[in-house]
């Protein structure tokens, strides 16, 4: 079992102020694989002090110096990609092919997009009428709180632009999937990041998360996680009026019109919802289907759901693995139970574990039909491999159902009519809309409307989140 109790503070590995051991569990086996220490207020104060001291010099470095550091981080990251694959597989149970093709490469994508944004950014420019100088400067010391479901994706999506902007930072990853963050701290150290610029403290939200979001010497909090936790972060940050950037939950609609290529659209819908074991905040979890093709879609979706394979993360293949923890497993079971009780038609999956998988937090790929948008399973973020199918009669009704949610992170449209695709996309209240299975590059903004958060990450948009704008008039 790995002993990973230390934190990375002020350029060195440091013991916690007060030992507080926490076992990291492999969700595929339910066995402990590592022990970390959960930090305290004292550890946060230590890290914030280091970051505050380092800000005086790091904030004055040139864009070229910051780009050079990011290039070194990218080089080391690529060399250690196999180590990152293994860390993510162990800590969250993601299958080895999915980790290698999707999870780990996300770090490369963000580093490259941030480098492009940094080199292209105009740090000073005249005001529109030419009477003043407009200057971008780093926002300051940042607290970065990241989740377990796409661990290195969200870490690099915050750390890279913060470094590029000239900020210093303290990273708190999820305590249940901390191995990728610890490895990333090693990468940062090997790349020669100046002491105090990047700091890492493990811990839970109650102790370390709250200490970061309320700390008077932190200028900004960037948080990715649940809407409930995001609300708490915002409340903690309010007394010090620090900047808060949030990327929160979703219940993303996926509108399937009768003129779509049905087989392609249904396969995409099933695979995208169940990918990462359903543990993606922008997963298309509500499939809205036009009446004239409703039964055909239901029948084919049932076949696709039943064909979805679940298996060990150690095996090669396109199967899905377990969900991340017993707590998450139990929550998903509760959502499925409520769907059955509400009268939704269970077409595939359901309660319990798949056959032959008694150990591990495996969930049956589950499909409900005849769901109304007022049902629990249509409104709550389940964060597991559970898809609901909802009927609609007209384009206007589909848009109304799609927008009838407190969330607004992503939306999806399947249609054979390009004009309708764009027309509907413009009416959907979501930060990202994907038409016919299209996927964006790493320089496209990511973030949501409504209770899905505020601010945007990725590329130049992520860089801007970590910058202040100053006007100098002479």
UniProtKB/TrEMBL annotation:
One of its GO terms (molecular function) is oxidoreductase activity, acting on the aldehyde or oxo group of donors, NAD or NADP as acceptor. InterPro entries: Ald_DH/histidinol_DH, Ald_DH_C, Ald_DH_CS_GLU, Ald_DH_N, Aldehyde_DH_dom. Keywords: Oxidation, Oxidoreductase. Pfam families: Aldedh. The keyword Oxidoreductase applies. It comes from the Bacteria. The active site is at 247. Residues 13-472 form the Aldehyde dehydrogenase domain. Belongs to the aldehyde dehydrogenase family. This is Aldehyde dehydrogenase (NAD+). It comes from Roseibium hamelinense.
């Amino acid at each position: 079992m790995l002993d990973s109790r230390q934190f990375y503070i002020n350029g060195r590995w440091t013991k916690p102020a007060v030992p507080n051991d926490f076992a990291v569990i492999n969700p595929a086996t339910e066995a402990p694989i590592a022990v970390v220490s959960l930090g305290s207020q004292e550890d946060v104060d230590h890290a914030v002090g280091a970051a505050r001291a380092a800000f005086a010099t790091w904030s004055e470095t040139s864009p070229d110096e910051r780009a050079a550091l990011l290039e070194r981080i990218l080089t080391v990251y690529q060399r250690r990609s196999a180590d990152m694959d293994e860390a993510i597989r162990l800590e969250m149970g993601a299958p080895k092919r999915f980790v290698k093709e999707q999870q780990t490469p996300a770090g490369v994508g963000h580093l490259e997009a941030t480098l492009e944004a940094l080199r292209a950014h105009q740090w000073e420019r005249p005001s529109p009428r030419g009477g003043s100088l407009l200057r971008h400067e780093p926002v300051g010391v940042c607290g970065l709180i990241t989740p377990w479901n796409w661990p290195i994706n969200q870490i690099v999506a915050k750390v890279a632009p913060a470094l590029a902007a000239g900020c210093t930072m303290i990273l708190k990853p999820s305590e249940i999937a901390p191995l990728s963050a610890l490895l990333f701290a090693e990468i940062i150290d090997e790349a020669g990041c100046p002491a105090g610029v990047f700091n890492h403290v493990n811990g839970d939200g109650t102790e370390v998360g709250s200490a970061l979001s309320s700390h008077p010497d932190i200028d900004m909090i960037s948080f990715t996680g649940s809407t409930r936790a995001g609300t708490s972060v915002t409340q903690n940050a309010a007394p010090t009026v620090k900047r808060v950037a949030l990327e929160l939950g979703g219940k993303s609609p996926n509108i399937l019109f009768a003129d779509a290529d049905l087989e392609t659209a249904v396969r995409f819908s099933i695979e995208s919802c169940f990918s990462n074991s359903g543990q993606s905040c922008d997963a298309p979890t509500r499939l809205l289907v036009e009446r004239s093709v409703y039964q055909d879609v239901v029948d084919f979706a049932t076949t696709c759901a039943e064909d979805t394979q679940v298996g060990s993360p150690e095996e090669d293949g396109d199967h899905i693995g377990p969900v991340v923890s017993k707590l998450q497993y139990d929550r998903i079971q509760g959502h499925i139970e409520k769907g059955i009780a509400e009268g939704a038609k269970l077409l595939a999956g359901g309660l319990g574990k798949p056959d032959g998988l008694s150990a591990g937090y495996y969930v049956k790929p589950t499909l409900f039909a005849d769901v109304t948008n007022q049902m629990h399973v249509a409104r709550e973020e389940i964060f597991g491999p559970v898809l609901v199918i909802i009927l609609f009669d007209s384009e206007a009704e589909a848009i109304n159902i799609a927008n009838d949610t407190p969330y607004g992170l992503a939306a999806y449209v399947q249609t054979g009519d390009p004009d309708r695709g764009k027309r509907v996309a413009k009416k959907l209240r979501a930060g990202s809309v994907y038409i016919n299975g299209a996927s964006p590059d790493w320089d496209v903004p990511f973030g949501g409307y409504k209770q899905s958060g505020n601010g945007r990450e990725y590329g130049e948009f992520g860089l801007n989140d970590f910058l202040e704008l100053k006007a100098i008039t002479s």
